[in-house]
Queue: 4 jobs
Job 1
Amino acid sequence: MIADEIRRLKEERNAVVLAHNYQVPAVQDVADFVGDSLELAIKAKNTDADVIVLCGVDFMAETAQILNPKKTVLLPAREATCPLARALTPDMIREARSSHPDAAVVVYVNSTAECKAEADITCTSANAVDVVRSLGEDVVFVGPDANLASYVRGQVPEKTVLPLPADGHCPVHLRFTLADVEAGRAQGDAVVCHPECSPEVQAASDLVASTGGMVRQAHLHPNWTVLTEEAMTYRLGRVFPNAAFHAVEGTECADMKMTTVEDVLVALKAGKHRVAVDETVAAGARRAIERMIALKR
């Protein structure tokens, strides 16, 4: 009945529900679109809806609002945030520019609006390599995830890629170890990991991919151990029902799991919780985000 009421309210409000791949299954099931950060950003920019309900964490809702300043963007779970995003501050970016005035700054979408406003361009784990390759600068700061920066460095050896900060990491992806890779192989799985995993885990895995990349490449093997947030296996199972996807126990992101299907219903009924980004900040962030999106075309 909740799903039926959500469908009714979406039509009544001219609303769209966008959900990240890490959302709980019930939320994925009521969403109009499920995807990774890049896919959600593009969907948010191109939607004709008046109301965007963003089921994810705060930086994703901020991105949707920045790209749609005249639309209403709602974050159903107001407290849902990202520890990784909090690892980077605007002052860190300004200090990096001061020490390397000729360097470019690439900021992961897993960052605050204020940090995006200080960047030359944003990236996601799906397009970070292409973003860095597109730049004319020889020295590029990539933050806030140091493991993503390490992955990009390996793929773009012609550039000097520096992490910003040096110790920025996703707490969930730090939990994965070589033992998880070995356990997957022992049961006959191919192993895919997210580029936020450690360089050692990346090197040992069969495939390193963003969540969107996992969806695009899962057809390559019938059985996978998936080294990212555990809800990704639900998303993959929906797309490939004849394949097997195994999560590692204890790899749940508490913030991504804050949003419930009841929260989505309340958001549509009562307009909770509306996202606002200062326009001065939004203008700079919009430039960096749109420069990233333009590379997709």
Job 2
Amino acid sequence: MSQRQLTPFESWVMEQKGTERPFTGLYVNTTAPGVYHCKKCGTALYRSEDKFHSECGWPSFDDEIPGAVERKTDADGSRTEILCKNCGAHLGHVFKGERFTAKNTRHCVNSVSLEFQPTKVPGVRTVVLASGCFWGTEYYLGRIPGVLKTVVGYTGGHVDNPSYKQVCTGTTGHVEATEVTYDPVQVDLAEILRVFFETHDFSQTDGQGPDIGPQYLSVLFYENDEEKKLAEDLIGQLKAKGMKVATALKPRVKFWPAEDYHQHYYESKGDIPYCHRYREIFTRS
């Protein structure tokens, strides 16, 4: 099985046995059905039904796919390291006796060592949202429980399959956007849109934070009248709070995925967004 080229941060974790910061990984709170694979070689390691919330800050599993994970005594002589048995990539550590689940085992795994492949679920939906640099947009929207997949790319312009370099000229008409695939049984579109508004400055008219230009505008792309009305209702709630809303509502058009190095950018770099942050605005029941 071929191995993918790793970023410096991915290499630091998987090959040099580093550890990502707690509560920053993409898969800390994921609940969707599917299989977690080794990011380095693609071997299936864990199933979603064995994942549980331990509040430790990293994805936790109480079992592995048989034969997929190797255990070794850690260099500190006290902990047990877990590695992908196929390629030797460092995954994290395994602990016993904590009584989180009936199996009494916790695989504490770095998100960056994993690649999640969701099970195909009937009735999945997608929505396309733009809120400045798509790295930050994807970072927050991809962490919503019930979101199955995110892809960053370009939409709304007049050039077919544009490159990042072309879009950055500000002349193609595209905005940087994120296509969000979600299971409506687990999360409704209203919650995704609430998080969309709560993670960027929707009052800014010339870009987002320090990123200035037409490719960084706030845009919500709707697929039908129902989605448009939902967006208008949420914008109405914001205006009722005295907030200015510059977010444009536009019909959904062709979405072009961006280059591979833009996908899950912050996860692959071990960093957090510089121009997006979360602050609660809407009241949840």
Job 3
Amino acid sequence: MFTHMQMTPVHLVIAAVAAFLAGGINSVAGGGTLVTFPTLMALGLPPVIANATNTVAIWPGTVGSLWGFRREFAQTETRMRWLVIPSVIGGAAGALLLRITPPNAFEKMVPFLVLFATVIFTARAPIQRLIKSAHPEAHRTKKWFVIGLVFQMLVGLYGGYFGAGISIMMLSALSIFGMTDMLQMNALTSLFSLCINGVAALLFIWASMVYWPYVLVMAIGSILGGYGAAGLARKIGGDRVRVFVLVVGYAISALLFVKMLR
């Protein structure tokens, strides 16, 4: 368990504000992890501990998201819920992989992971256009079902290991199954995120990888952000929120690469 760091009330406020912003961003555009994870690192947490703490702290926000899409979720096909299984397996495998990854090795991967998540977020619009133009009936075979299960397990693996950008990847997985209703797809991605992050969070807690002083304030901030900041973000406009996330993501990536090269 990591315990060696100086923490002040200002640190807690910064973590809570970051989580609040992430909650609002996630409810409108996604990508909130690109705000909270670098913030925890900036506050002094080692990358592995920051990643695990972020997963546990932000997880309650997925509960609220699933509740918000409960009507759409009730309308989804029963077979889609089988994706819970590869989500849980992949999330657990990813969390265990992070557990055994040497801290120095993970620290070297962080700039690439943040950049990868930002690029995935950048490609969100083309991916959604591809999803909308898919031919649903052509994807309702056993072959596509198996491909979808494998793809979702890989998404779960990545989600349990790092997590940023998994909502976009899961939309791709659902398109493999021929889904085109975006609200129903968002409902399912909320469920799968709940599973992936939930099992990862349990394993991180079991392995004593979580820095608890930040968890409560960030969980509260994330939930409040999902309700309060979402309204403000909608007034500002989803496009502007996405631009903000992209600027943050690429700026953080650049800073991390510069730090790594020193």
Job 4
Amino acid sequence: MAVIGLALTIAASASAQASPALLVVGMPHFGNPGQDIVNIRVEDVTTPDRQREIEELVARLAAFRPTRVAVEWPVGAQEKLDQRYADYRAGRYKLRPDEVDQIGLRLAAKLGLSRVDAVDWNDEFPGPDADYDFVAWAKSHGRGADWDRRVREQQAEADDRARLMACTPISAWVRQLNTPDARAKMQRPYYEIATMGDNAANPGANWVGGWYARNLRILNNLTALAQDPEARVIAIYGAGHGYLLDQQAREAGTFAVAETLAYLPASPRDGWKRCPD
């Protein structure tokens, strides 16, 4: 029995070693698209000081040795991303202040990769919009004020974080958003949204189901990049996706999922609770 147990252990170890690697890095949206329920206002990342910090962050992520860099960009627009990346490498394109450009394109170019991979899916959910309008349901069932209050509270927290970001390095922003506590906290509101409905109609659960489905489709796209067991994929994504993409990838067993914080070493300013006077 001991021999069988040892053989199973060795087989499991070999299987794990043969799995492609994945590193999920949740990012603040540098370009401030303002498309989330709660949004962090990010200051200009194109200043000389912030550009140096981004270069330092990219160098840290390069230590993962990715063979593919995947970004939050529609799969159907890969050709446009290919052109942007080619123009950047040829010196014909100036990086925009968003994480796709500042981190994704810069990292791939640093590593000499032939492309940056678009892996996003964010099309319309099936069925009428009303089936997903949990805010309308909340307002018509006496829960609108509570929902508005929760959004205000979460936005106030985001505003506090934005003020702290003004005096901390970009690597600290990214590290904080990828801690287990931060990821779990960003995931928790989806359970509240899912309660906005009843047995007759539950637009909240429908909407959250669509969110889960979106992340599963993103994971499928990441998996398609990793047919080679030696593949090492890094996913640069909005921080709200960090919890699910990491969890789903681990549960699926397709990847050996790396610990994000291992590639985001702490800095002395990570622990600051407020900006110095």
